[in-house]
Amino acid sequence: MRQIWNTPGGVHPPDNKEQSLTKNIGHLPLPEKLILPLTQHAGTAAKTCVVVGEKVLKGQKLASASAGISAAVHAPSSGWITAIEERSVAHPSGMSAACIEITCDGEDRWIERVSYPNYQQASAMQLRDLIADAGIAGLGGAGFPSAIKLDSGTKKPIDTLIINATECEPYITADDILICERADQIIQGIDIVSHLLGKPKTILIGIENNKPEAIAALNQHCQGTGIEVVYFPTKYPSGGEKQLIYILTGKEVPSGQLPADLGMVCLNSGTAFAIKRAVIDGEPLISRITTLAGEACGVNRNYEILIGTPVSHLLQHNNFDQALCSRLIMGGPMMGFSLASSEVPLIKTSTCILAPSHTEIPDDEPPQPCIRCGLCSEACPASLLPQQLYWYSRAKDHERLQSHNLFDCIECGACSYVCPSNIPLVQYYRSSKGDITNALATKATAAISRERFEFRQVRLEKADIARESKREARRLNTEQAKKMSPSTTQSTGSSAADIIKAAQLRGITKQASPEQQKAKLQRTLLAAQMRLEEAQQRLVQVTNKGSAHQQAQQLASVEAARRKVEQTTQRLTEVSH
Amino acid sequence: MVFKQVSSPHGHARQKTGEIMQLVVLATLPGFLVLTYQFGWGLLINLLIATLSAISAEALVLKLRNRPIDFYLRDYSAVVTAVLLALALPPLAPWWLVVVATVFSIVIAKQLYGGLGSNPFNPAMVGYVVALISFPIEMTTWVTPISLLAADISHPGLLESLAIVFTDNSPVDGVTGATPLDLFKHNDGLLVEQIYQNNTLFSRASFAGVGWEWANVAFLIGGLALLKARVFTWHGPMAMLGTLALMSMLFWDGGSSNSPGSPIMHLFSGASMLGAFFIVTDPVSSTVSNRGRLIYGALIGLLVYVIRAWGSYPDAVAFAVLLGNFAAPFIDNYTVPRTYGHDKSRRATAKEKSE
Ligand code: SF4
Ligand code: SF4
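A: This is the predicted complex of the input protein with iron/sulfur cluster.
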């Protein structure tokens, strides 16, 4: 077996996986309504391509990927589009976002499926388009659009494909059970990806050793395929992409870069399964395996749920008792976020719904002072100093936060987990990251306005000089004219007054004409939009390559440009009214 | 249905700050018992006075600062300070000495800086040094170990001890005497061998100095237990003890009359083990990273030796620790660990490069 590298830090929270593994993958009755957020992935929202009232079939595209980083959305069942509006969605901030609502007709009728069982004959580009068209985004939690991940572009050729089957979060067994029941299809998916990437030399499946059945199933199906199943000791967060790469290869993804820069691609095993479905069966990503766990539910089990199913629908069918439930978590206990309402839909990244009882996950005790015991830094997989980050977060010392590499924190929560003083460290880091990005945005806005101001100054000066020289020339002219014909003096006088008057009038018109103002604003808007687009492109570039700090900066300038566009649009509407 | 919103992670490891502190207190027990056996009731009286004054002082300041008294007392940090002081102060010291040292520790060295976690110096050591500087005589009068007492003398009993402590009586002659480190400090012209022969402190010792050797062994055991329980990492204590041993080896000088003593004597005398496992490891006032703790521990070990050998105090753990506390922020600046995905570790004060 290949060498395993040990990551620093890590914690061992209780597994709690057996509860949901007693039954096979289940199915729920069709919900009345499905709610599909346009942003279920990392990146920009998809663009709606249906209208309210339209009848849609299962698998029909509802929204297509927009430019940049985005993923399409499809109808998980047949029915009518009954709303396209803001709904509350599953997001740590409890925000609402644009969603498409389908009222199911109960027929569950498929659109015509186009499949490619002979994918070996397809080109990489065709396969990538297929995957993009199927709306596949990382099913492990981060939701990065897979087609973009698989596009190595001009970068290094990919020589290592890593399939992440680690599933290191407690309670979650979605990948585990999927492997146990459908390992063959996962391997098919891996084969498609391998074909797409030009047959990387090394293909590894990384899995923690607490899933013996899944390991056996993988071993059985990998025989003779050249795919290596590598298992390693259970430790949270081994499933972090960067951690897994280190465990399997001993290499670190440089800060701010992507695995592709090392010639590696890392995909979740559930994603490989979705890719198989998309290519061989012609089914876009409209369902996934989600674990339902926690003592507040009578049944703990994995379900193949339709994306867009409201969480409440899942709970209702599993003897959920709200009185028992201490909080409702989407995702695992370490990195999942609590839901304010059970009306939000399950999305492509929903690995788990955890409804723990009050004894299982009691309410947090109030935080005590940090005693600098260092347990947090012992637990940090990124070798950060969480206690220092905490002090600097409280002091809002952005400079120190950055010199302590705040942006390399993967928000795994290992530090808060071990903190004996119960300090919600990750919460501090998240808000500090937000603050820094905002501060950089403000700085970037200020820089743009300063630039514009300076430019204006220069222009005004130039205009002044030009006017001065014109006046001088005119004076000389008049003087000459005076000398030539003294009789015209009077008329010259009046004409000078006329000129001034005319000029004043011109000035007034220039100031007042709404048309001109509008035109000017429109030009500004156009420029701002262009700047926004440019900034976004640059962001994509630095996201692919560039330090975490550069990313933050670029994010900031995108934000600044966006603000400018907003401001100008607003002014424009004001002027137009 | 509406649910409570809480940030991740959901759920925590079992260990709580109060429990860690209790564990530390518990780990001093072997040392405390050995010291009590060797030096009599004085220790227990110290402990009671120190604990009572620490808790009252803490409660009072918390009340003045308008903080929930109950909540903060339950972190047990005041008790830890009290226990460390009780172990460090001489047994049978007058009651006011213990009170002054403890109250100073809690009020000035801890709460005035903002309470637990915000104090740059180890509170117990601040209290100790203030007492040492203000009351040098009382602070350097040590009780003679039980096995060295003359045949007709014994340690005072409990009541007698209480009388000594609370009425400022001096103990009977012969109950107090020199410590091993004192002997080396005040050595005039004797070879190490002669010191060892002439003085029962050494001639009757098993390996390092009667009374102190077993106390140090007991603290070592307690410390190793804490290490096993992962209350701290090995870096600080090992660096300190290693440096102390190394220095005493370098300057052993073949046991001449100038020799400041053997490595074994230094490791198992005075507050060496107590300092290494219970004071150097105080997380609040030490450095944060493991690499930092190596340097921090080594610095303290070095200072302990330098002051013992060439300074004017026989023991030096308290001074050395305070100097180490003082240096900790500087050490921290240069010992930030290398983060995943970075080639080098950065300075704590490094500026962000903008392109
Ligand atoms: S674990 Fe908590 S108390 Fe300990 S150093 Fe880290 S933040 Fe402070
Ligand atoms: S949340 Fe960040 S600081 Fe805390 S352990 Fe994880 S990576 Fe380290």
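The radius of gyration of chain B is 22 Å. Chain B has a mean pLDDT of 85.
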